[in-house]
Amino acid sequence: MKNNHLKKIPMVDLNRQYISIKKEIDCAISDVIKESGYINSRFVKKLEQEIAKYCGTKYAVGVNSGTDALYLSLWALGIKQGDEVITTPFTFIATAECISLLNAKPVFVDVDYETYNIDADLIEAKITKKTKAIIPVHLFGFPCEMNKIKKIAKKHNLFLIEDAAQAIGAEYMGKKIGSFGDTGCFSFFPSKNLGAYGDGGIITTNNKKLAERLIMLRNHGSKIKYFNEEIGVSSRLDGIQASILSVKLKYLDRWNRKRKEIAELYNYLLKEIDWIELPKENKDLKHVYNQYTIKVKNGKRDKLKKYLEEKGISSMIYYPLPLHLTKAMKYLDYKKGSFPVSEKLSKQVLSLPISADLKKKEVEYIGHSLKIG
Ligand SMILES: Cc1ncc(COP(=O)(O)O)c(C=O)c1O
User: Please, are residues 170 and 176 in contact by the beta-carbon 8 Å criterion?
Assistant: First the structure.
């Protein structure tokens, strides 16, 4: 493929996906409209049952976003002012933001350089009497070391909340992500592997009481309309999004397999470039490649990004600033150098386009451009 195609290769082309399933999606939307099933309707209940089955949990509770899935999980588990919650600084801010919103303290643990995920061997040193929960983040679609993390949580009597926003369909030793913790928190942000046509999220759990509390909290603290039992919020997943997601869920495994094929093609095309490090795989873990993220090791990451842009290739830096160095998290008083791996990664990482609809010739063009870049 020559550069004369000039059409930019985006990170994800959501319209291509829509066109491939247009009939079913249009029908799903029209079904909701025909019966005005916008709020708390059968479409949401149906999706909740389907997601619970898919993830291997007893319950799933639809909410407004992945952020709310985390926030409501922490709230329902009773996390409050003065509590500490362990997570990583190399993630999207929502993970730590939710802890702060409840006036609890995010306590960061550095990530593993190879996997980008929380370094399980560093967790115990950060546990204090105030620690109440751990939030491992399955970053880019790659599962965290759940056996180790679960053991630590059990030993110290801590809640385990999985931030699975980027990892629907991922598996750790044959078991679906989102089924290990007290809750699993998923995002349906449009560019996720299972994306809505707007915001959306869902919480998986095996705990009936917790599921019931989450159902109340997302709906103004009420089970029965106007008979509010506690203060809650408005964070429902809407009927149209649920109906769209039910259609897309049928394709998720196929799309995730396609993402893996694209990742393998990238691995093949880029393997001889000695200044690029490829994402790690592990035969016991199923990576669903919400992102295909390389490390650019010659200090030229930003220059490479610009060069790709000139070639019509999008790329993104997830994340350019670890959370402890953001202005928003300054109040935690972490110094530069506190999390050296996260800080190093923020200067090296570059995510390349990946989606089930990316064409082989586009991946080849990207691979070729990188080779001569
Ligand atoms: C790791 C992680 N956690 C949480 C979220 C929040 O999800 P949402 O955008 O649906 O609120 C995201 C979204 O990008 C995410 O990537």
Answer: yes
This prediction has a pTM of: 0.97
DSSP state at residue 338:
S
Sorted by sequence, the CB contacts under 8 Å of residue 150 that are 6+ apart come out as 160, 180
Phi-psi region of 157 (alpha: psi -120 to 50; beta: other; left: phi over 0): left
Average pLDDT, the chain: 96
Question: Among 65, 20, 273, 287, which Cα is nearest to 169's?
Answer: 287
Which two structure tokens, joined as six digits, stand for 6? 């000039």
- Cα–Cα distances in Å, from 173 out to 244, 255, 257? 30, 21, 17
For a mutational test of ligand 1's pocket, the pick from 72, 117, 166, 319, i.e. the residue with the most ligand atoms closer than 8 A to its C-beta, is 166
CB-CB contact of 259 with 289 (8 Å): yes
Query: Hey, which of 64, 67, 233 would you mutate to test ligand 1's pocket, going by the most ligand atoms within 8 Å of its Cβ?
Result: 67
pLDDT, one tens digit per residue, over 98-135 is 999 999 999 999 999 999 999 999 999 999 999 999 99
* Atom 8 in ligand 1: residue holding the nearest Cα: 66
Average pLDDT over residues 317-342: 97
Residue 225 confidence (pLDDT) above 70: yes
For the chain, strand residue ranges (E) read 59-63, 84-87, 105-108, 131-134, 159-163, 171-172, 175-176, 183-187, 201-205, 222-224, 227-228, 276-277, 285-286, 292-296, 349-352
Residues with CB under 6 A from ligand 1: 65-67, 91-92, 94-95, 137, 163, 165-166, 187, 189, 199, 201
* Distance (Å) from CA 198 to ligand 1 centroid: 13
- Residues 144, 169 contacting (CB under 8 angstroms): no
Contact between 291 and 354 (Cβ < 8 Å):
yes
Cβ neighbours of residue 316 under 8 Å, at least 6 residues apart?
A: 11, 291, 350, 351
